[in-house]
Design goal:
Blueprint: H1 5-53, H2 59-69, E1 73-78, E2 81-86, E3 94-99, H3 105-116, E4 123-128, E5 137-143, H4 145-197, H5 213-267, H6 273-299, E6 310-313, H7 314-329, E7 334-339, E8 345-348, H8 350-371, E9 375-383, E10 387-394, H9 401-405, H10 422-433, E11 437-444, E12 447-455
Parallel strand pairs: 3-4, 7-9
Antiparallel strand pairs: 1-2, 1-5, 4-5, 6-8, 9-10, 10-12, 11-12
Helix pairs in contact: 1-2, 1-3, 1-4, 5-6, 6-10, 7-8, 8-10
Length: about 450
């Protein structure tokens, strides 16, 4: 019960209604006390009028008048003269005096609360205005015990009535909340659970029907999210099927291309001028195709293995990459610049970091080579208190527009003409595995620059 929205709302409603009743109870008790004292003043005045009508009354009659008025003494001031009209012995000294003439509300409330919580009986003096201007003032003395008992009885009746009202109100609000709020929310929850059972089934997408504006907005937002998720799941399934097919084709194609490479080695030994001229291009084409197949197969794996982190000299890795790429420059005028301190060590998987830098440097070399212009590829490394930074820059023609829009998207963000975009996607995945980031710093006619950021701290510290 307490764990449900309607149950908690019921409890809060009871609490708030009772709090409101308490705020009403305090001035009500004060008003009851004031009316009680005024009624005793009126009774005492009536008793004194009987005395004025007949100056000679017996002690028994005087006692009866005081007993009916529930007072000990009655003093009436008429014509500036203070006159003791009725009197009887006081059982104890007067404890306090209360003047009801023009008494402020706060004072009446304070006196009522003090009287209610004081169990000791007292004799008090009460002063008020006579009714119908029958004098200047009237003053009585009386016991507080009957007054307190009357206040307690009145307070209990008020509290009982408050409890009944709060319970009735709470039940009505409870039913209203269940019908107009909880029930529609449960309906949305059931739709969500039904959709979660098979999110690829478009029939399970919620149809907004609520008449409440806020709830309908929630249903519409949920329907939009479910529609997008269903479409994404279907697209993911299609891509998974396509990826499996491409991986199979790439595997067989790589084997065939590997065999073709063996034949090209023999073709290069031919003395035919035309063969000599075309053989290098054929070799390059087959080599690129083999690399594409290998990249496709690598990306098609479920995930890259977790990096085996260790301290490695970054200069050694960069040197290996540059030496490998220099062999692929051929007749193009491409130079390499290495600005990596020989003592700089990074925490990384040496093999995976080599693949990342190799992909970036190779993309830069291919971009410069395709432009037909001379160019330079520079690799710069530095560190600060929290990270290592590796920047690979080139003076090539910059990335195409499509590559910038889908930079790290497989099969869409090729950085060079005819590229698949797998190199950058794989590089980003490997760097993320290190807890770092790979980002494009800038690209344009003056060249392109990528930055690798590797954290020095350990995750969770």
């Amino acid at each position: 019960m307490l764990n449900t929205l309607s149950g908690r709302f019921l409890i809060l409603t009871v609490i708030f209604v009772m709090l409101a009743e308490v705020l009403i109870f305090v001035p009500s008790i004060a008003r009851f006390r004031e009316d009680y004292l005024l009624s005793r003043l009126e009774r005492a005045q009536i008793a004194s009028l009987a005395l004025l009508a007949d100056d000679m009354i017996s002690p028994d009659l005087e006692e009866e008048l005081l007993r009916n008025a529930e007072v000990f003494n009655v003093v009436l001031r008429r014509n500036e003269a203070r006159q003791l009209m009725l009197s009887s012995p006081l059982p104890m000294p007067i404890h306090a005096t209360f003047d009801l003439r023009n008494a402020p509300p706060f004072e009446l409330i304070r006196d009522a609360m003090m009287e209610l919580f004081d169990p000791e009986p007292h004799v008090i003096r009460v002063i008020g205005n006579p009714v119908r201007e029958a004098g200047l003032l009237i003053e009585i003395t009386m016991e507080t015990a009957p007054l307190r008992m009357a206040m307690i009885d009145y307070g209990l009746r008020i509290l009982l009535l408050s409890a009944v009202i709060s319970a009735f109100t709470a039940v009505l609000l409870f039913l209203a909340v269940r019908v107009f709020l909880v029930k529609p929310i449960k309906g949305v929850v059931r739709h969500m659970q039904n959709y979660a059972a098979n999110p690829e089934d478009a029939r399970r997408i919620i149809q907004p029907t609520s008449g409440l504006r806020e709830l309908r907005e929630a249903e519409e937002a949920l329907a939009t999210m479910q529609t997008q998720l269903t479409g994404a799941l279907k697209q993911k399934e299609r891509l998974a099927q396509l990826g499996g097919a491409v991986a199979k084709v790439s595997h067989d194609l790589r084997n065939m291309l590997t065999s073709a490479q063996l034949f090209t080695d023999r073709i290069e030994m031919s003395e035919d001028p035309g063969v000599k001229r075309l053989a290098p291009k054929l070799v390059n084409s087959i080599t690129r195709a083999v690399h594409l197949c290998e990249s496709t197969l690598a990306f098609g794996k479920a995930e890259e293995p977790a990096p085996r982190l260790s301290r490695v000299y970054l200069a050694d890795i960069v040197s290996d990459v540059v030496d490998s790429e220099r062999l692929s420059v051929g007749e193009h005028d491409i130079s390499f610049a290495e600005d990596v301190p020989g003592t700089l060590q990074v925490r990384a998987d040496a093999e995976q970091l080599y693949r990342v830098i190799f992909n970036l440097v190779r993309n830069a070399r291919q971009a410069i080579a395709q432009s037909g212009e001379a160019g330079e590829i520079s690799i710069h490394a530095e560190e600060d208190e929290s990270r290592w930074l590796i920047r690979i820059s080139d003076t090539g023609p910059g990335l195409p527009k499509k590559a910038r829009e889908h930079l790290f998207t497989p099969f869409q963000g090729g950085a060079t003409k005819g590229g698949s975009g797998l190199g950058l996607a794989i590089a980003q995945e490997l760097i993320r595995g290190h807890g770092g980031a790979l980002r494009l710093v800038h690209t344009g006619a003056e060249g392109t620059s990528f930055e690798i950021s590797l954290p020095k701290g350990v995750a969770g510290q």
